[in-house]
Design a protein that fits this description.
It is built from four helices and no strands. The radius of gyration is 21 Å and the shape is extended. The longest helix is centred in the first third of the chain and has 14 residues, at 4-17. The chain has 135 residues and is mainly α.
């Protein structure tokens, strides 16, 4: 979720603190991430449009290693469907798989909440606990 602007600002600071002639001041920098995850959030307060780090020319100074083995899922067809969704190219086979997995939600006003941040989950759970009857 690191924006191009913030990434380049960090590089600028390193370069001016260490060695003005080398990217990142000659320091070794290791980046880790998944570009198919959430994009950077724009921040108008700091004039940051939220451009992706992949747009930065500084990436040409990095050696890239792509990890491609999935450890958390054993179902090959589900892994394939997830990769296709990330690329925006869902095959008919993967679409059929996802449709077979479709289930109705349990009854109630708020049966399921999906949240991107763990902190939001904790806050929601605490709110629900406060509203429950009992001590």
């Amino acid at each position: 979720m690191l924006s191009e602007r913030l990434f380049e600002q960090v590089e600028y600071v390193f370069r001016h603190l260490k060695d003005v002639t080398k990217p990142f001041g000659g320091c070794q920098v290791i980046l880790s991430g998944d570009f198919f995850q959430l994009p950077p959030v724009p921040n108008s307060k700091y004039d940051d449009p939220g451009s992706s780090i992949v747009e930065s020319q500084l990436l040409k100074f990095f050696h890239h290693v792509n990890l491609d083995h999935v450890y958390r899922q054993k179902e090959v067809d589900l892994v394939q469907a997830i990769h296709e969704i990330a690329r925006g190219q869902l095959s008919h086979e993967s679409e059929a798989l996802l449709m077979r997995m479709k289930r109705p939600l349990p009854p109630g006003e708020n049966p399921v909440k999906i949240m991107a941040r763990r902190e939001d989950v904790y806050l929601w759970n605490a709110k629900c606990l406060r509203e429950m009857d009992g001590e």
